[in-house]
Design brief:
Elements: H1 2-9, H2 14-21, H3 27-36, H4 43-51, H5 59-74, H6 89-92, E1 98-103, E2 111-120, E3 124-133, E4 137-145, H7 148-162, E5 167-168, H8 171-187, H9 194-203, H10 220-227, H11 251-266, H12 273-292, H13 296-313, H14 317-328, H15 351-354, H16 360-374, H17 380-387
Antiparallel strand pairs: 1-2, 1-5, 2-3, 3-4
């Protein structure tokens, strides 16, 4: 009888059927009401019948609800899809696993040593040491169980033994440096360290990581450099710092270019001035490419920024600001080996590389003096590699 009433009254019968379908203390009336939902071609009837198809409903009501839905579907009426569950932002954000991250200064080849304290699920904290390089890629990756106290003692002992400065960096920047080095290894066809694969998922860049930028721009000194410039020539004193000890090419690297420079004009054949200028232009491009190192001017600028950050964080404010000021003048030309132009381009290079019209002989003399200041091309990161346990 209820189904006949619902069929005849149509949507007007829905309020009554809805009330009867909720009368759990009247199972007979409730069952008849659920059956009657299939006779009313309205969306609300399909939604109500769908509620009774769950596992918590009695078996008889579930069967009656499914029959009602079948009849409604034959009329083209389907239950409304369930709303998408609200996602908790804290739940979808990947938990931060890098508790601490520190880096040494970067040498002339773009190599540095990273120390990380990583929280590994179901295992505990691990100390990670990674040697990352713009030129050579990810050359070393070691890990060992640790704790916060052992981590602090270990890095303090290494910094004292190998006499390098350490600066805390954001976890996101550490992930970027490791990913960049791993990509360089793959591009060069080199294998990756075995231990890296076990922690790769924890150290890969997160989707919400900020854009890769040197952390120096998060310091107040970055604005001080912008609004209180100083003479760029003073940045040559940075070559006396251990952080820049191997940034100047060795005499052995520069002397062949000096010979090419002299031979352009003093060869057995007398060349026209235009040919001499062209050959010396090519020699100067080789010299500038050597000075800028891996990744060209962009890599040179980033190394200056990161060393400026280490200097500023280790209490050498004046030297850090000079390095940062030099990075603002770094050449941004996309042509590899492009010659520095204007004041301060290619800062930190031998004198012959800073002046486009200087002779290669003068450049060779400059590198002899620079080598006496810098010593062998070992670099702090290199000493860190020898000292890793």
């Amino acid at each position: 009888m209820l189904r006949r009433h619902a069929r005849q009254a149509g949507p007007d019968a829905f309020p009554l059927v809805e009330v009867l379908a909720g009368m759990g203390n009247r199972p007979t009336a409730q069952l008849a009401a659920v059956e009657a939902l299939g006779e009313m071609p309205v969306q609300a009837a399909a939604d109500l019948a769908d509620r009774w198809t769950g596992d918590v409903a009695p078996k008889a009501l579930r069967k009656a609800a499914r029959r009602a839905l079948l009849r409604l579907s034959q009329r083209g009426i389907q239950p409304s899809p369930p709303p998408a569950p609200a996602q908790d932002q804290a739940a979808v954000t990947r938990p931060e696993r890098v508790r601490r991250a520190l880096m040494t200064p970067v040498n002339g080849e773009g190599t540095r040593l990273l120390y990380l304290l990583v929280d590994v699920p179901f295992t505990g904290a691990q100390l990670v040491m990674a040697v990352v390089s713009q030129r050579h890629g990810l050359t070393r990756f070691d890990s060992a169980e640790s704790s916060a106290r052992r981590f602090e003692k270990f890095i303090a002992a290494d910094a004292q033994r190998y006499e390098f400065a350490l600066a805390e960096i954001p976890a996101a920047y550490a992930r970027h440096l490791i990913a960049e080095a791993a990509a360089a290894s793959r591009a060069a066809g080199h294998g990756l360290p075995q231990r890296y694969h076990s922690l790769k998922d924890l150290l890969s860049p997160a989707p919400d990581d900020p854009a890769a930028e040197s952390p120096v721009f998060g310091l107040a000194d970055a604005d001080a450099v912008r609004y209180r410039p100083e003479p760029l020539e003073a940045s040559m004193e940075l070559l006396d710092r251990p952080e820049f000890a191997d940034w100047v090419p060795s005499t052995d690297q520069v002397l062949p270019m000096a010979r090419e420079w002299n031979e352009a004009e003093g060869g057995t054949l007398a060349l026209p001035p235009s040919a001499v200028a062209q050959r010396r232009e090519a020699t100067m491009d080789q010299l500038v490419e050597l000075v800028l190192g891996p990744s060209g001017a962009e890599g040179f600028r980033r190394r200056l920024e990161d060393n400026a950050y280490v200097l500023l964080r280790s209490g050498h404010g004046r030297e850090g600001r000079r390095a940062l000021r030099s990075s603002t003048y770094a050449l941004s030309s996309s042509r590899p080996g492009a010659r520095p132009t204007g004041r301060g381009d290619g800062e930190g290079a031998p004198a012959g590389a800073q002046s486009g019209g200087a002779s290669a002989r003068r450049g060779a003399r400059g590198t002899r003096g620079a080598r006496r200041v810098s010593g062998p091309r070992s670099g702090h990161a290199g000493r860190g590699r020898r000292g890793k346990r």
